[in-house]
Predict the structure.
Amino acid sequence: MPLVTLKEVLDTAYREGYAVGAFNIIDLEFLEAIVLAAHRKNSPVILNIAEVHFPFVNLEHIVPVVKEIAREEHFDMVLNLDHGLTMEAIERAIANGFTSIMFDGSHLDFDENVKQTREVVKMCHAVNISVEGELGAVGGAEGGGLVGKADPSKYTDVVQAKEFARQTGVDALAVAIGNSHGKYKGEPDLDFQRLKAIRDAVAVPLVLHGGSGISAADFRNAISLGIAKINFFTGMSEAAIQTTTSYVQRIGTQYNDYPMMMKEVKESVAAVVAEQMEIFGSTGKAANH
Ligand SMILES: [Zn+2]
């Protein structure tokens, strides 16, 4: 079936109390690993391509493949621009047929974030594309190798969140509640009280970035408090590197080892993704909108 919008997938997940994972594509290997996991788990999936990863993945080449896979598979697939920062990237994603845009205005002051997000919503909704906004600053840097540390002074403000959602018309809102991109320094310490207050104040599904390193119990708690989309990348990257390292140590570095090594890498990344789908509760919800 064709790609579906973020709104279609998240509204059902939010209502039924599970979350859909958003996993980043950086090449065909990661794309196939994610699809393999969704297929095995009968789960909907959000494919993320982050603007910071544009130097690694050619949109014009990979998006036709994504669309072809969506047509062949039975589960809901969303193609989302992750952390869109520039209008150039957003327009390129729209031209390529993305069904969701995350506009990251979290570095702007509140009024400017509202203004720019509202513009993106207007542009995207006119062509049936969903929009995710972000308010508050998630720690670390998307796609970077940095150790993320959340700054409590930058957590999402409840009153602002309500205004932001109302004024922009976003379909989903990414929150900062102690979550962080990259590797966590120590145990993640999520502010669930704040999350609950945001959920009560805002009508749209909420999004948790920086999923790698958060415990299954914390995920379940967060999902029960309105999180319906979880961004996850670092754990996949980590699995790929560990598998590569262990393959080289076990088997060696023969010139013809590459295909077998990449097969193991793909399986290890698929296993990480499948495990998250179990925890997020999206298994068996393949086409549930
Ligand atoms: Zn993120």
Q: What stands out?
A: The first helix runs from residue 6 to 16.
